[in-house]
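Data deposition worksheet. Section B asks for the primary sequence of the deposited chain exactly as it was used as input, without tags or linkers unless they were present during the calculation. Section C holds the resulting structure in token form. Section D is free text for depositor observations; keep each observation to a single sentence. Incomplete worksheets are returned to the depositor.
Section A, Depositor: J.P.
Section B:
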Amino acid sequence: MKLQEIYENTLALTLETPADNPDFGQFVVGYFNILLRELFCHNNIARKRNGKPPLAVVPVVSDKNDENPYEWQFDNALIYGLAAKLLTADEHGLEGTYLQLYYAAVNGALQAQQEEVEDCYVHNCTC
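Section C:
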């Protein structure tokens, strides 16, 4: 998913349009890079679970047409996180609501997955 798509989904979620808040567009890349730093360790956990090697450094985007460098499990977290950051100065106080949704989406992306358990017994008892 491209950053532009995440931005458009964020606007749809918040019922905003670029015409309503023309300033939003200039902050998207910066806020997205902040979110990438916040989610770096979490994304590496998801990468490991998905059978991929961890990223060595935090990725940086420079344009709204850049591809989201993180696992798909964090798409919702990025949408909610971007909404919280864009609405920081919102007079309706919606930032807290989107922050709660952001943290819930991060936790949802990191939910434990069921896997087989292998029983291993060591019989070195000297009793």
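Section D:
The mean pLDDT is 87.
Residues 3-109 form one domain.
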